[in-house]
Amino acid sequence: MNIVRTGFYTGMGTAARLLAGLVAIKLVAWFAGPEGVGRLGQFMSLMSLLAVLAGGGISAAVVKYVAEYRDDPQRLSRLLSAALWYAFCASCLMGGVALLLSRWIALWLLGDPQYAGLIRVLAIAQLGIALVNYILAVVNGFMDVRRLAFIQVTGSVVGIVMMVWLARWLHLYGALLALVLSQVLWLAVALPAWWRSSYFHRSMLRLRHDREMTLRLATFSVMTISSALLPPLVNIAVRDHLALRFGWEQVGYWQAVSKVSDAYLLFLTTAINIHYLPRLAATHDRTALLQELRQAYRYLLPAVAVLAAAVYACRGWLTRLLFTPDFASANALYGPQLVGDVLKIASFILSYLMLAKAMTRLFVVSECLFAASYLALVYGFTAHFGLVGAMYAFAVNYLLYLAFTVLVARRYLGGL
């Protein structure tokens, strides 16, 4: 299946997830204003962080090795049994830690210990979220994009209904609670859809420790956790810095533009993850790899450029539609953010080569380096340019990251 057809199916699933996210932002903007949107960003960063850690950060590894072992039933069974065991252990560990520290986390992130109950719900939900991530990774590894899109669309519809109901009842607290519960309810859709697939076997739900496969998963886990762990932590630090320097209302403007950016980029990053990661993992020929990368740039770079231009042209209307008229000050922040978005997609295409080929040490070092450089740039640029300096920092950091990924790709392909 080529990138265009894959993009069609992933686009449907992504559109549904995007709509669910936008409904959450709109409801929070109504009930809590810019300050509430800023706190929503903090909670979503925590959810992203715990969701990855709970499953052991092995989703990308499952996608990679399912794509490689799909024609080897014995190794595939060993891999998936080990993956489920790994995810189960990690979920129990992280859920326990979150339960113990729930009050402190609520005070640190949301500034109110009354949200500790919400953190406890999120901690208990880790097992369900990890199982959902495992199922989606297996389906993705088999490149079953139709089934993946069905799960995403149906799960997102369930989430939207719950979001509207709980937000009307409990306002900001209800919206945050719905974000957690809707993730677990995806199981009601994902499990039956997976059972009906031609490649499902009951052995895929067996938990078993396998030393060899666990080591393979752990190697990938280090890369995935570093890429998933650092951005939420850095964004939390950025929000705290902006709140201290400019106030939570200004953080809400920064968060609003960042969420618009994340929303439209979700289509492209999902296509890269679903289409290119399994294909790059299963491809070892230099000519074939070059062809995959060229195809990615041929379709994705023009797409992100057109989307960024459209968002910039419609920024005033989008801000009023997605938020409220109180967010008008956010319109001045779009320009450098959208330039950074184009650079982000250009660098992501090449960075997936490091994931697919398990360049663990290089990948982890680069993630740490560029997370630190982004934070440093935010501190420096906001001191000179004000709030918009955070957007300048985003664009400059991805320009540096693009240069780095070009060097890595040239070195790897030149060595084949």
From TrEMBL:
<feature type="transmembrane region" description="Helical">
    <location>
        <begin position="387"/>
        <end position="409"/>
    </location>
</feature>
<feature type="transmembrane region" description="Helical">
    <location>
        <begin position="338"/>
        <end position="355"/>
    </location>
</feature>
<feature type="transmembrane region" description="Helical">
    <location>
        <begin position="7"/>
        <end position="31"/>
    </location>
</feature>
<feature type="transmembrane region" description="Helical">
    <location>
        <begin position="79"/>
        <end position="105"/>
    </location>
</feature>
<feature type="transmembrane region" description="Helical">
    <location>
        <begin position="117"/>
        <end position="136"/>
    </location>
</feature>
<feature type="transmembrane region" description="Helical">
    <location>
        <begin position="173"/>
        <end position="195"/>
    </location>
</feature>
<protein>
    <submittedName>
        <fullName>O-antigen translocase</fullName>
    </submittedName>
</protein>
<feature type="transmembrane region" description="Helical">
    <location>
        <begin position="215"/>
        <end position="236"/>
    </location>
</feature>
<keyword id="KW-1003">Cell membrane</keyword>
<dbReference type="InterPro" id="IPR044550">
    <property type="entry name" value="WzxE"/>
</dbReference>
<keyword id="KW-0812">Transmembrane</keyword>
<feature type="transmembrane region" description="Helical">
    <location>
        <begin position="256"/>
        <end position="278"/>
    </location>
</feature>
<keyword id="KW-1133">Transmembrane helix</keyword>
<feature type="transmembrane region" description="Helical">
    <location>
        <begin position="148"/>
        <end position="167"/>
    </location>
</feature>
<feature type="transmembrane region" description="Helical">
    <location>
        <begin position="43"/>
        <end position="67"/>
    </location>
</feature>
<feature type="transmembrane region" description="Helical">
    <location>
        <begin position="362"/>
        <end position="381"/>
    </location>
</feature>
<dbReference type="InterPro" id="IPR050833">
    <property type="entry name" value="Poly_Biosynth_Transport"/>
</dbReference>
<dbReference type="Pfam" id="PF13440">
    <property type="entry name" value="Polysacc_synt_3"/>
</dbReference>
<feature type="transmembrane region" description="Helical">
    <location>
        <begin position="299"/>
        <end position="318"/>
    </location>
</feature>
<keyword id="KW-0472">Membrane</keyword>
